């Protein structure tokens, strides 16, 4: 047993320095030089202020914006830190709803959201991503179908022709990566920035 | 289910299979002590470390010496990590000013990372400083994986060689696993991850002003370097609470495919390492085929269940085309999420890109099943291989009983002692999973942690103890596990599942390694053909079924049946 102490000490120290200090710092240094935008979190800036990250969804509630998916993230309750309050798209505390498929809370929430969306859009069904929370609560994307479902509301609020918004969506759809991986999607923050440019022009 | 969905799965599987021979061959050279193409870079480090460790330390070891060295090293790693967790508040690289972690959570987390489980009862971005993530957690991501690989190398030598001290030396295997396999792969993968959008910075967080004028605090950190080893070492502990569902831990469907490759690559390739080292590559392919059959079957069920959507939501006017999207990300969809879930639980990784808790009843059943089958298809790095070799030994024994011959595997006779030790190891799993679940299901303190009622609540408990004992680390994450009860019992379950399993298995290796390898005769049961593959699959399923079917019936199966009646909880 005692004979093992020296190699244990030497290797734990040596490998800790190598894998816990040298390795992450070397990757950090290389990334900062070669890939600064990605390494810093793919931030979007307007002048000096950070508007957000292309990879992280934001909460949109005003009818003039494209809305992202429902988000299940929370934050500590300012009044009582042992409790939490809903805080959609809290990028400091990622989380899913963790509701099971038969949870009454899930069914009730989806029922209310679906009815509201059907009433607003006049559609008969809604795409699944429109009424379900993402795994991270920070999903930056929506399906093209969910984007199109919101055209009527945005056109009315902004006084834009619906087909111009349709065209904006069509131009913003990202297909599957390499044509194979994942699903087609629209980045909500980028779409809303483009929508603002369209409104201004 | 769609054709493009299946194509995605097949492309990733093809990538894994394509790396089996080159990676498996490389690892065979690593464990044979030969020079590799990486020796010019890492050779001096290897020699330096082992020189400092001492001449005596690197001599060949008996099974007991090897096992003791492993235990001492892991105990030291546990103490170091526990200390870092407790005092992170006064250590540097803590831009968000997190306090030290409380004793129960620090115990749970230290056991979790040392045992390659990476169960997380905390949210990474709200609890751990950058120093803890790097010097504490990333290090154990490497070392727990290297420990598993070293043990697998010893187990392979038990069949390949003969002699009391032919199992090798733990310190050498540990060092070579880290330097020649885990570290170089991690460097390449981490840089690829950053290129596809994963952050890698020492900044703590950045404050954004959203388009609606609200403040959004975006947590950042050295993510890519941890993500790479987290997948390669089948660890699974996320930098962020949402793990690889977080867009920073998995920005695109390409990083997603790379992650799935990474978490399967080493475990799958070790079967080829095994085949090469025992001098018969067909033996390795037979083992890999067993793994692929079970994994493929589980994938079909999970993808089918998820792609169909939730009928209770379809009835409300939700279009079922996208499938069950609760707890899934749009960029992945149901195909890439199902494949990830199967790969992460077939290996003992436990990283998630979708919330298993919100899977359909049968979709969530498959990850649970794969964990309970013992994390052997293909299992954690190293631990999966020695785990399935234990099953192979059981299989030849059962086959031997059926035809009335002395069973042997790879020319080594399987006798009473080996069977006793194999069964001892095998019984740890149901004892810990079912025992703890049964107690928790009767304790009000434990039940207060449940997030879902009905059969789903029981599945939460079953999944937690299965995940801990199987050293997986994924969760039905609604369970509020950061309580003294769960932190302590899950910590014990992780310890039992790792070391309670490994010690009898190493004793079995010690018993096998002293036997001479007989030559095959006409009466030898061939262990490289379809009959053997079929028998091993059957033994795995029957063993898992006998142990766990009643619990499954009360959890996911009854939940699936209730879904048809429209019952909610």
Automatic annotation (TrEMBL), chain A:
Keyword list, A-Z: ATP-binding, Cell membrane, Ion transport, Membrane, Nucleotide-binding, Potassium, Potassium transport, Transmembrane, Transmembrane helix, Transport
Signal peptide positions (record): none
GO MF annotation, one: P-type potassium transmembrane transporter activity
Membrane topology: Single-pass membrane protein
Domain of life: Bacteria
Low complexity bias locations: 70-82
Region (Disordered): 66-86
Cross-referenced Pfam families: KdpC
Record carries keyword Transmembrane: yes
Example of a GO cellular component annotation carried by this entry: plasma membrane
Keyword Signal part of the UniProt annotation: no
Annotated compartments: Cell membrane
Subunit structure: The system is composed of three essential subunits: KdpA, KdpB and KdpC.
Described purpose of this protein according to its UniProt entry: Part of the high-affinity ATP-driven potassium transport (or Kdp) system, which catalyzes the hydrolysis of ATP coupled with the electrogenic transport of potassium into the cytoplasm. This subunit acts as a catalytic chaperone that increases the ATP-binding affinity of the ATP-hydrolyzing subunit KdpB by the formation of a transient KdpB/KdpC/ATP ternary complex.
Family named by the database record: Belongs to the KdpC family.
Protein's name according to its UniProt entry: Potassium-transporting ATPase KdpC subunit
Organism from which the protein derives: Siculibacillus lacustris
Gene from which this protein is expressed: kdpC
From TrEMBL, chain B:
One term of GO molecular function: P-type potassium transmembrane transporter activity
Membrane spanning residue stretches: 63-85, 142-159, 179-198, 260-278, 285-305, 376-401, 421-443, 490-510, 531-553
Pfam family, one: KdpA
InterPro entries: KdpA
Keywords: Cell membrane, Ion transport, Membrane, Potassium, Potassium transport, Transmembrane, Transmembrane helix, Transport
Major localization class: membrane
Membrane topology (UniProt): Multi-pass membrane protein
UniProt record similarity statement: Belongs to the KdpA family.
Protein purpose: Part of the high-affinity ATP-driven potassium transport (or Kdp) system, which catalyzes the hydrolysis of ATP coupled with the electrogenic transport of potassium into the cytoplasm. This subunit binds the extracellular potassium ions and delivers the ions to the membrane domain of KdpB through an intramembrane tunnel.
HAMAP family with a match to the protein in the record: KdpA
PANTHER family in the cross-refs: POTASSIUM-TRANSPORTING ATPASE A CHAIN, POTASSIUM-TRANSPORTING ATPASE POTASSIUM-BINDING SUBUNIT
Name by which UniProt lists this protein: Potassium-transporting ATPase potassium-binding subunit
Origin organism lineage: Bacteria, Pseudomonadati, Pseudomonadota, Alphaproteobacteria, Hyphomicrobiales
């Amino acid at each position: 047993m005692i004979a093992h102490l020296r190699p244990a000490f030497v290797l734990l120290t040596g490998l800790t320095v190598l894998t816990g200090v040298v390795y992450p710092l070397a990757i950090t240094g290389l990334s900062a030089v070669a890939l600064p935008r990605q390494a810093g979190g793919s931030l979007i800036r307007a002048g000096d202020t950070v508007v957000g990250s292309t990879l992280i969804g934001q909460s949109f509630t005003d009818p003039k914006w494209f809305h992202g998916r429902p988000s299940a993230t929370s934050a500590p309750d300012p009044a009582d830190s042992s409790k939490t309050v809903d805080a959609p798209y809290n990028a400091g505390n990622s989380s899913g709803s963790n509701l099971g498929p038969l949870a009454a809370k899930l069914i009730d929430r989806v029922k209310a959201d679906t009815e509201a969306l059907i009433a607003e859009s006049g559609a008969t069904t809604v795409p699944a991503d429109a009424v379900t929370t993402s795994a991270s609560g920070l999903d930056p994307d929506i399906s093209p179908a969910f984007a199109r479902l919101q055209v009527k509301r945005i056109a009315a609020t902004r006084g834009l022709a619906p087909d111009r918004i349709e065209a904006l969506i069509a131009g913003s759809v990202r297909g599957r990566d390499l044509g194979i991986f994942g699903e087609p999607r629209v980045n909500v923050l980028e779409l809303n920035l483009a929508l603002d440019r369209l409104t201004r022009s | 289910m769609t054709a493009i969905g299946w194509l995605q799965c097949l492309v990733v599987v093809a990538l894994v299979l394509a790396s089996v021979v080159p990676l498996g061959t490389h690892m065979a050279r690593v464990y044979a002590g030969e020079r590799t193409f990486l020796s010019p870079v890492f050779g001096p480090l290897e020699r330096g470390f082992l020189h400092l460790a001492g001449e005596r330390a690197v001599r060949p070891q008996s099974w007991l010496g090897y096992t003791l060295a492993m235990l001492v090293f892991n105990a030291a790693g546990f103490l170091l990590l526990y200390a870092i967790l407790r005092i992170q508040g006064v250590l540097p690289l803590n831009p968000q000013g997190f306090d030290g972690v409380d004793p129960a959570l620090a115990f749970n987390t230290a056991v979790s990372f040392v045992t390659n489980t990476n169960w997380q009862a905390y949210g990474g971005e709200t609890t751990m400083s950058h120093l803890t993530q790097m010097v504490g957690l990333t290090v154990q991501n490497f070392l727990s994986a290297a420990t598993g690989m070293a043990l697998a190398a010893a187990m392979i030598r038990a069949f390949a060689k003969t002699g009391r001290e032919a199992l090798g030396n733990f310190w050498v295997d540990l060092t070579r696993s880290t330097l020649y396999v885990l570290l170089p792969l991690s460097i390449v993968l981490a840089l690829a991850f950053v290129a596809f959008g994963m952050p890698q910075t020492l900044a703590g967080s950045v404050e954004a002003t959203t388009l609606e004028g609200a403040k959004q605090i975006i947590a950042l950190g050295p993510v890519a370097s941890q993500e790479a080893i987290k997948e390669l070492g089948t660890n699974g502990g996320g930098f962020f609470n949402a793990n690889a569902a977080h867009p920073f831990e998995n920005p695109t469907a390409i990083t997603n495919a790379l992650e799935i490759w990474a978490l399967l690559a080493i475990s799958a390739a070790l079967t080829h390492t095994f085949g090469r080292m025992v001098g018969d590559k067909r033996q390795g392919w037979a083992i890999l085929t067993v793994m692929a059959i079970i994994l493929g079957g589980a994938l079909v069920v999970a993808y089918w269940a998820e792609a169909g959507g939730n009928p209770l939501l379809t009835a409300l006017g939700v279009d079922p085309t996208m499938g069950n999207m609760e707890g899934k990300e749009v960029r992945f969809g149901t195909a890439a999420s199902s494949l990830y879930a199967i790969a992460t639980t077939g290996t003992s990784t436990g990283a998630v890109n979708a919330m298993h808790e919100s899977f359909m009843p049968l979709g969530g059943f498959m990850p649970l099943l794969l964990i309970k089958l013992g994390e052997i298809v293909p299992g954690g790095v190293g631990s999966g291989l020695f785990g399935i070799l234990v099953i192979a030994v059981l299989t030849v024994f059962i086959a031997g009983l059926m035809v009335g011959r002395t069973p042997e595997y790879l020319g080594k006779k399987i006798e009473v002692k080996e069977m006793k030790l194999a069964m001892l190891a095998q019984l740890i799993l149901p004892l810990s999973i079912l025992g703890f679940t049964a107690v928790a299901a009767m304790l009000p303190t434990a039940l207060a942690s449940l997030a879902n009622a009905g059969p789903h609540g029981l599945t939460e408990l079953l999944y937690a103890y299965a995940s801990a004992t199987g050293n997986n680390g994924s969760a039905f994450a609604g369970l509020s596990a950061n309580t003294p009860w769960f932190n302590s019992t899950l910590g014990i379950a992780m310890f039992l599942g790792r070391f309670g399993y490994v010690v009898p298995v190493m004793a079995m290796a010690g018993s096998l390694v002293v036997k001479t390898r007989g030559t095959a005769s006409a009466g030898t049961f061939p262990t490289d053909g379809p009959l053997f593959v079929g028998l091993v699959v059957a033994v795995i399923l029957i063993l898992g079924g006998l142990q766990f079917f009643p619990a499954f019936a009360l959890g996911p199966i009854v939940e699936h049946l209730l879904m048809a009646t429209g019952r909610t909880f």
